[in-house]
Amino acid sequence: MAAERRAEVIWQGNLTQGNGKLTVGSGAFGEQSITWASRIERPDGKTSPEELIAAAHAGCYAMALSHTLNQGGTPPEQLIVNAVCTLDQGKITTMKLDVQGSVPGLDAAAFKQAAQKAEQSCPVSNALRNNVQIQLNARLTQQPQATGSC
């Protein structure tokens, strides 16, 4: 079954002086302002298409990695995914994903292997692939040592 999600932008004015209002169909977050300046200079509390792509990629990749780890019999306790989308000279050039995870029963090499496998199955990664360079850095966080007293 196909899932459709919607967003709308109402833009007023020219590119450099204008502004827009973004809403999402789910109502998950309120109306967001977008401007050219927020895209290439400072956000000043406004968003940009690149920030929204980074957010989509971080969320999608976290789900893909969680699924990959669970299928391998080592569900994660926690995954933290940071995504950075770079716009350079009018083109989205790179997407950097940094993931750190707490996964009981998994060593660093196996975590990196699962991270790479998940990147290949992530729908947002696959939409960007061959158009945007995707860089993936994966790090397993140390598990807390059990401290007990007898």
Describe the structure.
This protein is of the alpha+beta class. The protein has helices spanning 36-40, 49-71, 108-121, 123-128, and strands at residues 7-12, 19-24, 32-34, 78-88, 91-102, 133-140. It has a 3-stranded antiparallel beta sheet. Strands 4-5-6 form a 3-stranded mixed beta sheet, with helices on one face. β2 and β3 form a beta hairpin. α2 (49-71) crosses α3 (108-121). The longest helix is centred in the middle third of the chain and has 23 residues, at 49-71. The radius of gyration is 19 Å and the shape is elongated. 24% of the residues are buried.
Provide keyphrases for this structure.
150 residues; 3-stranded antiparallel β-sheet; 31% strand; 4 helices; 3-stranded mixed β-sheet; alpha+beta
Number of strands: 6
Low-confidence stretches: none
Topology as a string of helices (H) and strands (E)? EEEHHEEHHE
Radius of gyration of CA atoms, rounded to a whole number: 19 Å
The proportion of strand residues reads: 25-35%
Measured as a percent range, the helix fraction is: 25-40%
How many DSSP helices? 4
Spatial arrangement of strands, main beta sheet: 1-2-3
Distance between the termini: 55 Å
State the major sheet: 3 strands, antiparallel
Overall morphology = elongated
- Determine the mean pLDDT: 93
Supply the helix-strand structural class.
alpha+beta
